[in-house]
Amino acid sequence: MRHVPHVPLPRIGMRVVKTAVSVMLSYALFVPFGLMYHEELGGVLGQLGPTYACIACIICTQSTLGQTVQQGISRLIGVAVGGCLGIAALQMGTLLDDPWVRMPVLGAVCVAGVWLCLLIKRPTACGMACILPCVILISRVTGDVRYYYAAARIIETVAGVTIALAVNALLPDHRKEERGAPTPQEFLQSIKPLCVIGDPVGHSLSPRIQGAMLKASGLDAQYRYGARQVPAGDTCRFLAHAAAEGYAGFNATMPHKEALVPLMDELSPDARMYRSVNTVCIKGGRFYGYNTDGVGFLQALREVDMDPEGRKVLLLGAGGAAKAVAPKLIQAGAERVFVANRTVERAAALCAWDEEGRMVPRDFRPETLRALAAECTLVVNCTSLGMTGTAGQFEDLTFLEALPHGAGVFDLIYSPAKTALLERAEALGHPISNGLGMLIWQAVFALECFTDTRLDRPAMAAAARKALEEEHTPALSSGGAGEEKGT
Ligand code: NAP
Protein backbone atom coordinates (compact mmCIF):
# COMPACT_ATOMS: atom_id res chain seq x y z
CA MET A 1 0.00 0.00 0.00
CA ARG A 2 1.22 3.45 -0.85
CA HIS A 3 1.95 5.71 2.05
CA VAL A 4 -0.34 8.75 2.00
CA PRO A 5 1.37 11.73 3.64
CA HIS A 6 -0.64 13.30 6.45
CA VAL A 7 -1.42 16.93 5.72
CA PRO A 8 -2.50 18.79 8.86
CA LEU A 9 -5.61 20.88 8.20
CA PRO A 10 -6.58 23.95 10.20
CA ARG A 11 -9.46 23.26 12.56
CA ILE A 12 -12.68 25.11 11.83
CA GLY A 13 -13.14 26.71 15.23
CA MET A 14 -14.94 29.79 16.48
CA ARG A 15 -12.19 32.13 15.27
CA VAL A 16 -12.62 30.90 11.66
CA VAL A 17 -16.42 31.09 11.95
CA LYS A 18 -16.26 34.67 13.27
CA THR A 19 -13.94 35.77 10.50
CA ALA A 20 -16.13 34.19 7.81
CA VAL A 21 -19.35 35.66 9.21
CA SER A 22 -17.96 39.19 9.54
CA VAL A 23 -16.36 39.14 6.09
CA MET A 24 -19.63 37.95 4.53
CA LEU A 25 -21.57 40.66 6.36
CA SER A 26 -19.10 43.35 5.22
CA TYR A 27 -19.26 42.11 1.67
CA ALA A 28 -23.05 42.02 1.69
CA LEU A 29 -23.14 45.56 3.06
CA PHE A 30 -20.89 46.95 0.37
CA VAL A 31 -22.05 44.87 -2.61
CA PRO A 32 -24.37 47.61 -3.90
CA PHE A 33 -21.53 50.14 -3.71
CA GLY A 34 -19.08 47.65 -5.09
CA LEU A 35 -21.28 47.11 -8.13
CA MET A 36 -21.42 50.81 -8.87
CA TYR A 37 -17.78 51.40 -7.93
CA HIS A 38 -16.44 53.76 -10.51
CA GLU A 39 -14.06 56.65 -10.05
CA GLU A 40 -15.84 58.83 -12.54
CA LEU A 41 -19.08 58.59 -10.58
CA GLY A 42 -17.53 61.01 -8.09
CA GLY A 43 -18.66 61.54 -4.53
CA VAL A 44 -17.82 59.33 -1.55
CA LEU A 45 -20.47 56.73 -2.37
CA GLY A 46 -18.96 56.13 -5.76
CA GLN A 47 -15.67 55.20 -4.11
CA LEU A 48 -17.02 52.72 -1.57
CA GLY A 49 -16.22 49.02 -1.83
CA PRO A 50 -15.93 46.01 0.52
CA THR A 51 -12.12 45.57 0.54
CA TYR A 52 -11.15 47.72 3.51
CA ALA A 53 -14.14 46.56 5.57
CA CYS A 54 -13.16 42.94 4.93
CA ILE A 55 -9.52 43.61 5.89
CA ALA A 56 -10.67 45.30 9.13
CA CYS A 57 -12.92 42.32 9.89
CA ILE A 58 -10.19 39.76 9.26
CA ILE A 59 -7.73 41.57 11.51
CA CYS A 60 -10.18 42.38 14.28
CA THR A 61 -11.80 38.96 14.59
CA GLN A 62 -8.42 37.40 15.37
CA SER A 63 -8.58 39.10 18.76
CA THR A 64 -10.77 39.20 21.85
CA LEU A 65 -13.59 41.71 22.23
CA GLY A 66 -11.43 44.18 24.17
CA GLN A 67 -8.57 43.80 21.69
CA THR A 68 -11.03 44.25 18.81
CA VAL A 69 -11.87 47.71 20.13
CA GLN A 70 -8.16 48.58 20.40
CA GLN A 71 -7.44 47.12 16.95
CA GLY A 72 -10.34 49.10 15.52
CA ILE A 73 -9.15 52.33 17.12
CA SER A 74 -5.64 51.71 15.79
CA ARG A 75 -6.91 51.02 12.28
CA LEU A 76 -8.97 54.21 12.31
CA ILE A 77 -6.01 56.22 13.57
CA GLY A 78 -3.86 54.64 10.85
CA VAL A 79 -6.43 55.49 8.17
CA ALA A 80 -6.76 59.05 9.48
CA VAL A 81 -2.98 59.61 9.68
CA GLY A 82 -2.34 57.96 6.29
CA GLY A 83 -5.29 59.78 4.69
CA CYS A 84 -4.17 63.21 5.93
CA LEU A 85 -0.53 62.66 4.91
CA GLY A 86 -1.52 61.26 1.52
CA ILE A 87 -3.86 64.17 0.82
CA ALA A 88 -1.21 66.65 2.03
CA ALA A 89 1.28 65.11 -0.40
CA LEU A 90 -1.25 65.41 -3.22
CA GLN A 91 -1.04 69.19 -2.85
CA MET A 92 2.21 68.92 -4.83
CA GLY A 93 -0.04 68.51 -7.87
CA THR A 94 1.53 67.68 -11.23
CA LEU A 95 5.00 67.40 -9.69
CA LEU A 96 3.95 63.95 -8.52
CA ASP A 97 3.57 62.79 -12.10
CA ASP A 98 7.36 62.41 -12.17
CA PRO A 99 8.17 59.02 -10.60
CA TRP A 100 11.57 60.38 -9.38
CA VAL A 101 9.63 62.87 -7.26
CA ARG A 102 6.75 60.57 -6.31
CA MET A 103 9.02 57.80 -5.00
CA PRO A 104 10.92 59.85 -2.35
CA VAL A 105 7.71 61.72 -1.40
CA LEU A 106 5.95 58.41 -0.82
CA GLY A 107 8.89 57.20 1.31
CA ALA A 108 8.88 60.41 3.34
CA VAL A 109 5.11 60.22 3.86
CA CYS A 110 5.36 56.61 5.07
CA VAL A 111 8.18 57.47 7.48
CA ALA A 112 6.14 60.40 8.80
CA GLY A 113 3.07 58.14 9.23
CA VAL A 114 5.02 55.50 11.14
CA TRP A 115 6.69 58.15 13.29
CA LEU A 116 3.34 59.80 14.15
CA CYS A 117 1.72 56.47 15.08
CA LEU A 118 4.66 55.49 17.28
CA LEU A 119 4.59 58.93 18.86
CA ILE A 120 1.02 58.34 20.06
CA LYS A 121 1.96 54.77 21.08
CA ARG A 122 -0.20 53.06 18.43
CA PRO A 123 2.25 50.76 16.59
CA THR A 124 -0.59 48.73 15.07
CA ALA A 125 -1.77 51.90 13.28
CA CYS A 126 1.49 52.06 11.29
CA GLY A 127 0.28 49.64 8.59
CA MET A 128 -2.72 51.70 7.55
CA ALA A 129 -0.75 54.94 7.90
CA CYS A 130 1.54 53.66 5.13
CA ILE A 131 -0.94 51.71 3.00
CA LEU A 132 -3.34 54.61 2.48
CA PRO A 133 -0.80 57.14 1.14
CA CYS A 134 0.60 54.39 -1.10
CA VAL A 135 -2.84 53.72 -2.56
CA ILE A 136 -3.64 57.42 -2.92
CA LEU A 137 -0.32 58.38 -4.52
CA ILE A 138 0.19 55.37 -6.73
CA SER A 139 -3.40 55.10 -8.06
CA ARG A 140 -4.41 57.37 -10.83
CA VAL A 141 -7.06 59.08 -8.72
CA THR A 142 -7.11 62.78 -9.38
CA GLY A 143 -8.77 66.02 -8.26
CA ASP A 144 -11.49 66.05 -5.60
CA VAL A 145 -11.98 62.32 -6.06
CA ARG A 146 -8.85 61.83 -3.95
CA TYR A 147 -10.69 63.25 -0.93
CA TYR A 148 -13.74 61.07 -1.59
CA TYR A 149 -11.37 58.17 -1.92
CA ALA A 150 -9.80 58.80 1.49
CA ALA A 151 -13.24 59.37 3.12
CA ALA A 152 -14.51 56.12 1.60
CA ARG A 153 -11.61 54.16 3.13
CA ILE A 154 -12.44 55.63 6.56
CA ILE A 155 -16.13 54.73 6.22
CA GLU A 156 -15.25 51.19 5.11
CA THR A 157 -12.89 50.75 8.04
CA VAL A 158 -15.47 52.04 10.53
CA ALA A 159 -18.08 49.66 9.09
CA GLY A 160 -15.65 46.72 9.16
CA VAL A 161 -14.59 47.38 12.74
CA THR A 162 -18.24 47.74 13.85
CA ILE A 163 -19.17 44.45 12.20
CA ALA A 164 -16.16 42.69 13.76
CA LEU A 165 -17.05 44.12 17.15
CA ALA A 166 -20.67 42.96 16.91
CA VAL A 167 -19.69 39.47 15.69
CA ASN A 168 -17.07 39.16 18.43
CA ALA A 169 -19.59 40.22 21.07
CA LEU A 170 -22.42 37.97 19.85
CA LEU A 171 -20.52 34.72 19.18
CA PRO A 172 -18.75 32.72 21.95
CA ASP A 173 -15.20 33.58 23.06
CA HIS A 174 -12.85 31.65 20.75
CA ARG A 175 -10.00 31.71 23.29
CA LYS A 176 -11.70 29.13 25.54
CA GLU A 177 -11.72 26.42 22.88
CA GLU A 178 -8.23 27.32 21.67
CA ARG A 179 -6.59 27.48 25.07
CA GLY A 180 -6.51 23.70 25.58
CA ALA A 181 -4.43 22.05 28.27
CA PRO A 182 -1.10 23.74 29.10
CA THR A 183 2.10 21.83 28.40
CA PRO A 184 4.02 20.65 31.51
CA GLN A 185 6.56 23.41 30.84
CA GLU A 186 3.86 26.11 30.61
CA PHE A 187 2.30 24.73 33.76
CA LEU A 188 5.60 24.90 35.68
CA GLN A 189 6.35 28.40 34.41
CA SER A 190 2.95 29.65 35.57
CA ILE A 191 3.61 28.57 39.18
CA LYS A 192 4.79 31.47 41.32
CA PRO A 193 7.41 30.72 43.96
CA LEU A 194 6.94 31.58 47.64
CA CYS A 195 9.30 30.75 50.50
CA VAL A 196 10.49 31.43 54.00
CA ILE A 197 13.95 32.92 54.42
CA GLY A 198 16.05 32.72 57.56
CA ASP A 199 19.23 31.45 59.10
CA PRO A 200 18.75 28.80 60.34
CA VAL A 201 15.64 27.88 58.37
CA GLY A 202 15.87 24.08 58.22
CA HIS A 203 13.48 23.58 61.11
CA SER A 204 10.87 26.01 59.82
CA LEU A 205 7.34 24.66 59.84
CA SER A 206 6.23 27.27 57.30
CA PRO A 207 6.75 25.08 54.19
CA ARG A 208 4.55 22.38 55.73
CA ILE A 209 1.91 24.83 56.92
CA GLN A 210 1.80 26.84 53.71
CA GLY A 211 1.99 23.70 51.58
CA ALA A 212 -1.05 22.25 53.34
CA MET A 213 -3.01 25.49 53.00
CA LEU A 214 -2.13 25.90 49.32
CA LYS A 215 -3.33 22.36 48.70
CA ALA A 216 -6.53 22.78 50.71
CA SER A 217 -7.38 26.02 48.89
CA GLY A 218 -6.53 24.64 45.44
CA LEU A 219 -3.93 27.39 45.07
CA ASP A 220 -1.16 24.80 44.73
CA ALA A 221 -1.74 25.00 40.97
CA GLN A 222 -0.50 28.61 41.09
CA TYR A 223 2.01 28.75 43.94
CA ARG A 224 4.70 26.57 45.48
CA TYR A 225 6.34 27.25 48.83
CA GLY A 226 9.86 26.37 49.94
CA ALA A 227 12.56 27.38 52.41
CA ARG A 228 15.70 29.34 51.59
CA GLN A 229 18.72 29.68 53.86
CA VAL A 230 19.67 33.36 53.66
CA PRO A 231 22.43 34.55 56.00
CA ALA A 232 22.30 37.88 57.81
CA GLY A 233 23.52 40.66 55.52
CA ASP A 234 22.08 39.00 52.39
CA THR A 235 18.54 40.34 52.83
CA CYS A 236 18.83 42.97 50.06
CA ARG A 237 20.46 40.50 47.68
CA PHE A 238 17.65 38.01 48.23
CA LEU A 239 15.03 40.71 47.57
CA ALA A 240 16.55 41.43 44.16
CA HIS A 241 16.77 37.70 43.43
CA ALA A 242 13.13 37.13 44.45
CA ALA A 243 11.90 39.95 42.20
CA ALA A 244 13.97 38.67 39.25
CA GLU A 245 12.79 35.09 39.75
CA GLY A 246 9.10 36.08 39.81
CA TYR A 247 8.46 35.34 43.49
CA ALA A 248 4.96 36.36 44.61
CA GLY A 249 6.46 36.93 48.05
CA PHE A 250 8.15 35.33 51.04
CA ASN A 251 8.08 35.03 54.80
CA ALA A 252 11.01 36.13 56.91
CA THR A 253 12.27 34.89 60.19
CA MET A 254 15.49 35.50 62.17
CA PRO A 255 17.65 37.45 61.29
CA HIS A 256 15.79 39.38 58.55
CA LYS A 257 12.66 40.81 60.12
CA GLU A 258 14.18 44.19 61.07
CA ALA A 259 16.57 44.37 58.11
CA LEU A 260 13.62 44.22 55.69
CA VAL A 261 11.93 47.36 57.07
CA PRO A 262 13.98 50.02 55.21
CA LEU A 263 14.00 47.92 52.02
CA MET A 264 10.23 47.96 51.52
CA ASP A 265 8.42 50.31 49.12
CA GLU A 266 5.40 50.24 51.43
CA LEU A 267 4.83 49.02 54.97
CA SER A 268 1.54 47.89 56.53
CA PRO A 269 0.53 49.79 59.70
CA ASP A 270 1.54 46.79 61.88
CA ALA A 271 4.93 46.36 60.19
CA ARG A 272 5.56 50.09 60.62
CA MET A 273 4.49 49.94 64.27
CA TYR A 274 6.68 46.93 65.16
CA ARG A 275 9.55 48.02 62.84
CA SER A 276 9.57 44.37 61.78
CA VAL A 277 8.47 42.55 58.59
CA ASN A 278 7.56 38.86 58.51
CA THR A 279 5.72 38.83 55.15
CA VAL A 280 6.86 40.41 51.89
CA CYS A 281 4.63 40.58 48.82
CA ILE A 282 6.14 41.43 45.44
CA LYS A 283 3.80 43.09 42.97
CA GLY A 284 4.83 44.94 39.83
CA GLY A 285 8.45 45.01 41.01
CA ARG A 286 7.46 46.75 44.27
CA PHE A 287 7.97 45.33 47.76
CA TYR A 288 5.12 45.44 50.28
CA GLY A 289 6.03 44.60 53.87
CA TYR A 290 3.55 43.18 56.38
CA ASN A 291 3.74 41.77 59.86
CA THR A 292 1.12 39.12 60.55
CA ASP A 293 2.47 38.06 63.97
CA GLY A 294 0.20 40.44 65.91
CA VAL A 295 -3.03 39.54 64.10
CA GLY A 296 -2.04 35.87 64.20
CA PHE A 297 -1.51 36.05 67.94
CA LEU A 298 -4.86 37.77 68.53
CA GLN A 299 -6.74 35.26 66.40
CA ALA A 300 -5.08 32.35 68.22
CA LEU A 301 -5.94 33.92 71.56
CA ARG A 302 -9.60 34.33 70.62
CA GLU A 303 -9.72 30.82 69.24
CA VAL A 304 -8.99 29.44 72.72
CA ASP A 305 -11.45 31.82 74.42
CA MET A 306 -8.77 34.07 75.88
CA ASP A 307 -10.02 37.32 74.32
CA PRO A 308 -8.01 40.06 76.07
CA GLU A 309 -10.83 42.62 76.09
CA GLY A 310 -11.25 44.08 79.57
CA ARG A 311 -8.50 41.91 81.06
CA LYS A 312 -5.36 42.83 82.93
CA VAL A 313 -2.52 40.93 81.26
CA LEU A 314 0.84 39.81 82.59
CA LEU A 315 3.16 39.79 79.59
CA LEU A 316 6.49 38.05 80.18
CA GLY A 317 9.36 39.29 77.98
CA ALA A 318 10.04 42.38 75.88
CA GLY A 319 11.87 40.94 72.86
CA GLY A 320 10.85 40.81 69.22
CA ALA A 321 7.70 38.73 69.77
CA ALA A 322 6.51 40.94 72.65
CA LYS A 323 6.78 43.97 70.34
CA ALA A 324 4.00 42.49 68.17
CA VAL A 325 1.95 41.01 71.01
CA ALA A 326 1.78 43.92 73.50
CA PRO A 327 0.26 46.57 71.16
CA LYS A 328 -2.25 44.02 69.82
CA LEU A 329 -3.42 43.31 73.40
CA ILE A 330 -4.03 47.03 73.94
CA GLN A 331 -5.71 47.42 70.52
CA ALA A 332 -7.98 44.46 71.39
CA GLY A 333 -9.18 46.24 74.53
CA ALA A 334 -6.96 44.89 77.33
CA GLU A 335 -7.41 47.10 80.37
CA ARG A 336 -3.73 47.00 81.32
CA VAL A 337 -0.63 45.12 80.14
CA PHE A 338 2.18 44.64 82.64
CA VAL A 339 5.36 43.99 80.67
CA ALA A 340 7.72 42.08 82.98
CA ASN A 341 11.22 41.63 81.59
CA ARG A 342 14.63 40.67 82.87
CA THR A 343 16.04 43.84 81.30
CA VAL A 344 13.60 46.46 82.61
CA GLU A 345 14.85 49.16 80.23
CA ARG A 346 13.67 47.02 77.33
CA ALA A 347 10.24 46.71 78.95
CA ALA A 348 10.14 50.49 79.47
CA ALA A 349 11.06 51.12 75.82
CA LEU A 350 8.26 48.81 74.68
CA CYS A 351 5.70 50.43 76.99
CA ALA A 352 6.55 53.89 75.65
CA TRP A 353 4.47 52.93 72.59
CA ASP A 354 1.25 53.49 74.58
CA GLU A 355 0.96 57.16 75.47
CA GLU A 356 -2.09 56.51 77.63
CA GLY A 357 -0.10 54.53 80.18
CA ARG A 358 -2.00 51.26 79.75
CA MET A 359 1.30 49.41 79.30
CA VAL A 360 3.37 49.24 82.48
CA PRO A 361 7.02 48.09 82.64
CA ARG A 362 8.06 45.77 85.48
CA ASP A 363 11.07 43.69 86.50
CA PHE A 364 11.22 39.90 86.32
CA ARG A 365 11.82 39.03 90.00
CA PRO A 366 9.60 36.20 91.36
CA GLU A 367 7.98 38.47 93.97
CA THR A 368 7.11 41.04 91.28
CA LEU A 369 5.57 38.33 89.09
CA ARG A 370 3.60 36.95 92.06
CA ALA A 371 2.18 40.38 92.91
CA LEU A 372 1.23 41.06 89.28
CA ALA A 373 -0.27 37.58 88.75
CA ALA A 374 -2.70 38.21 91.62
CA GLU A 375 -4.41 41.00 89.65
CA CYS A 376 -4.21 39.53 86.10
CA THR A 377 -6.58 37.14 84.34
CA LEU A 378 -4.26 36.39 81.42
CA VAL A 379 -0.55 35.48 81.26
CA VAL A 380 1.27 35.60 77.95
CA ASN A 381 4.81 34.25 77.79
CA CYS A 382 6.93 36.01 75.18
CA THR A 383 10.29 34.97 76.63
CA SER A 384 12.28 32.10 75.18
CA LEU A 385 12.31 30.38 78.58
CA GLY A 386 11.29 26.74 78.22
CA MET A 387 11.84 26.56 74.47
CA THR A 388 13.42 23.37 73.15
CA GLY A 389 17.10 23.87 72.46
CA THR A 390 17.60 26.72 74.90
CA ALA A 391 19.15 26.13 78.29
CA GLY A 392 16.89 28.70 79.97
CA GLN A 393 13.98 27.63 82.17
CA PHE A 394 11.79 29.61 84.60
CA GLU A 395 13.57 29.45 87.95
CA ASP A 396 10.33 30.04 89.83
CA LEU A 397 6.80 29.28 88.65
CA THR A 398 5.06 29.96 91.96
CA PHE A 399 3.58 33.16 90.52
CA LEU A 400 1.07 30.91 88.71
CA GLU A 401 -0.41 29.97 92.09
CA ALA A 402 -1.33 33.63 92.66
CA LEU A 403 -3.44 33.76 89.47
CA PRO A 404 -7.19 34.11 89.96
CA HIS A 405 -9.32 31.03 89.17
CA GLY A 406 -9.91 30.58 85.45
CA ALA A 407 -7.09 32.91 84.34
CA GLY A 408 -5.68 31.85 80.96
CA VAL A 409 -2.01 31.06 80.29
CA PHE A 410 -0.77 31.45 76.71
CA ASP A 411 2.80 30.51 75.82
CA LEU A 412 4.12 31.66 72.43
CA ILE A 413 6.45 28.66 72.44
CA TYR A 414 5.16 25.60 70.55
CA SER A 415 8.26 23.45 70.81
CA PRO A 416 7.85 21.62 73.12
CA ALA A 417 4.08 21.45 72.81
CA LYS A 418 3.78 21.87 76.58
CA THR A 419 6.42 23.91 78.37
CA ALA A 420 7.01 23.64 82.11
CA LEU A 421 5.00 26.87 82.43
CA LEU A 422 1.99 25.34 80.66
CA GLU A 423 2.28 22.04 82.55
CA ARG A 424 2.24 23.82 85.88
CA ALA A 425 -0.63 26.12 84.86
CA GLU A 426 -2.65 23.14 83.62
CA ALA A 427 -2.02 21.28 86.87
CA LEU A 428 -3.39 24.31 88.70
CA GLY A 429 -6.58 24.10 86.59
CA HIS A 430 -5.98 27.07 84.27
CA PRO A 431 -6.91 27.04 80.60
CA ILE A 432 -3.69 26.86 78.57
CA SER A 433 -2.52 27.22 74.99
CA ASN A 434 0.84 26.98 73.24
CA GLY A 435 2.02 29.12 70.31
CA LEU A 436 1.11 26.72 67.51
CA GLY A 437 -2.18 28.54 66.87
CA MET A 438 -0.32 31.84 66.52
CA LEU A 439 2.16 30.25 64.10
CA ILE A 440 -0.69 28.86 62.01
CA TRP A 441 -2.79 32.04 62.02
CA GLN A 442 0.07 34.34 61.07
CA ALA A 443 0.62 31.95 58.13
CA VAL A 444 -3.06 32.16 57.12
CA PHE A 445 -2.88 35.96 57.03
CA ALA A 446 0.44 35.84 55.17
CA LEU A 447 -1.08 33.57 52.51
CA GLU A 448 -3.95 36.01 52.07
CA CYS A 449 -1.37 38.77 51.47
CA PHE A 450 0.59 36.66 48.96
CA THR A 451 -2.45 35.61 46.97
CA ASP A 452 -4.49 38.80 47.41
CA THR A 453 -7.43 36.53 48.22
CA ARG A 454 -9.81 36.28 51.16
CA LEU A 455 -9.46 32.60 52.04
CA ASP A 456 -11.68 30.30 54.07
CA ARG A 457 -9.63 31.02 57.18
CA PRO A 458 -10.93 28.28 59.52
CA ALA A 459 -10.48 25.71 56.73
CA MET A 460 -6.92 26.91 56.12
CA ALA A 461 -6.02 26.77 59.83
CA ALA A 462 -7.57 23.30 60.11
CA ALA A 463 -5.62 22.04 57.07
CA ALA A 464 -2.34 23.35 58.50
CA ARG A 465 -2.98 21.83 61.92
CA LYS A 466 -3.94 18.49 60.37
CA ALA A 467 -0.79 18.43 58.23
CA LEU A 468 1.40 19.07 61.28
CA GLU A 469 -0.40 16.41 63.31
CA GLU A 470 -0.24 13.83 60.51
CA GLU A 471 3.49 14.29 60.13
CA HIS A 472 4.07 14.00 63.89
CA THR A 473 6.18 17.12 63.61
CA PRO A 474 9.17 16.49 65.92
CA ALA A 475 9.38 20.20 66.77
CA LEU A 476 6.01 19.94 68.46
CA SER A 477 6.83 17.01 70.70
CA SER A 478 8.69 17.43 73.98
CA GLY A 479 11.79 15.70 72.65
CA GLY A 480 12.06 17.82 69.45
CA ALA A 481 15.07 19.79 68.35
CA GLY A 482 13.30 22.73 66.68
CA GLU A 483 14.67 26.13 67.57
CA GLU A 484 12.61 28.20 65.26
CA LYS A 485 11.06 31.50 66.21
CA GLY A 486 7.77 32.33 64.54
CA THR A 487 7.62 31.66 60.80
P1 NAP B 1 13.97 37.58 71.68
O1 NAP B 1 13.75 38.81 70.90
O2 NAP B 1 15.30 36.97 71.75
O3 NAP B 1 13.47 37.86 73.18
C1 NAP B 1 13.67 36.91 74.19
C2 NAP B 1 12.98 37.37 75.44
O4 NAP B 1 13.19 36.36 76.42
C3 NAP B 1 13.55 38.68 76.00
O5 NAP B 1 12.52 39.39 76.60
C4 NAP B 1 14.55 38.16 77.03
O6 NAP B 1 14.78 39.08 78.06
C5 NAP B 1 13.83 36.96 77.56
N1 NAP B 1 14.76 36.01 78.16
C6 NAP B 1 15.67 35.24 77.55
N2 NAP B 1 16.35 34.50 78.45
C7 NAP B 1 15.87 34.83 79.67
C8 NAP B 1 16.16 34.39 80.99
N3 NAP B 1 17.08 33.48 81.22
N4 NAP B 1 15.46 34.93 82.00
C9 NAP B 1 14.50 35.85 81.76
N5 NAP B 1 14.17 36.30 80.55
C10 NAP B 1 14.86 35.80 79.50
O7 NAP B 1 13.01 36.43 71.17
P2 NAP B 1 11.56 36.60 70.51
O8 NAP B 1 11.69 36.72 69.05
O9 NAP B 1 10.83 37.66 71.23
O10 NAP B 1 10.90 35.17 70.79
C11 NAP B 1 10.51 34.80 72.09
C12 NAP B 1 9.81 33.45 72.06
O11 NAP B 1 8.59 33.56 71.33
C13 NAP B 1 10.61 32.35 71.35
O12 NAP B 1 10.55 31.19 72.16
C14 NAP B 1 9.91 32.13 70.05
O13 NAP B 1 10.00 30.79 69.63
C15 NAP B 1 8.49 32.49 70.39
N6 NAP B 1 7.76 32.98 69.20
C16 NAP B 1 6.70 32.26 68.81
C17 NAP B 1 5.96 32.70 67.71
C18 NAP B 1 4.77 31.91 67.26
O14 NAP B 1 4.32 32.10 66.14
N7 NAP B 1 4.23 31.07 68.08
C19 NAP B 1 6.33 33.88 67.03
C20 NAP B 1 7.43 34.59 67.49
C21 NAP B 1 8.15 34.12 68.58
P3 NAP B 1 15.90 40.23 77.94
O15 NAP B 1 15.25 41.34 77.20
O16 NAP B 1 16.25 40.57 79.32
O17 NAP B 1 17.05 39.59 77.20
Task: Fill in the keyword field for this structure.
487 residues; alpha/beta; six-stranded mixed β-sheet; six-stranded parallel β-sheet; 18 helices; 12 strands; 11% strand; binds NADP nicotinamide-adenine-dinucleotide phosphate
Structure write-up:
- Mean pLDDT is 87; it is low at 477-484.
- The chain has helices at residues 14-36, 51-60, 65-90, 99-119, 126-138, 145-170, 174-179, 184-190, 206-217, 235-244, 269-274, 293-303, 320-331, 344-351, 366-373, 420-427, 436-451, 457-470; strands at 192-198, 223-229, 249-252, 266-267, 279-283, 286-290, 312-316, 336-340, 359-362, 378-381, 408-411, 432-433.
- The chain has 487 residues and is of the alpha/beta class.
- The chain starts with 13 loop residues before the first helix and ends in a 17-residue tail after the last helix.
- α13 (320-331) links the parallel β7 (312-316) and β8.
- The protein has a 6-stranded mixed sheet with strand order 2-1-3-5-6-4, with helices on both faces. A 6-stranded parallel sheet has the order 9-8-7-10-11-12, with helices on both faces.
- The chain binds NADP nicotinamide-adenine-dinucleotide phosphate.
- Residues 293, 317-322, 341-343, 346, 364, 382-385, 387, 392, 412-414, 435, 438-439, 442, 485-486 line the site of NADP nicotinamide-adenine-dinucleotide phosphate (NAP).
Note the run of SSEs as H and E. Answer: HHHHHHHHEHEHEEHEEHEHEHEHEEHEHH
Strand content: 5-15%
Quaternary: single chain
**Mean pLDDT across every amino acid position:** 87
Radius of gyration from the CA trace? 36 Å
Low-confidence stretches: 477-484
Task: Tell me how many strands there are.
Answer: 12
Distance between the termini: 69 Å
What is the overall number of helices? Answer: 18
The outline comes out as elongated
Distinct bound molecules: NADP nicotinamide-adenine-dinucleotide phosphate
Strand order of the largest sheet: 2-1-3-5-6-4
Roughly how much helix do the residues carry, as a percent range?
Answer: 40-55%
Helix/strand/pairing category: alpha/beta
Query: Could you describe the largest sheet, including whether it forms a barrel?
Result: 6 strands, mixed
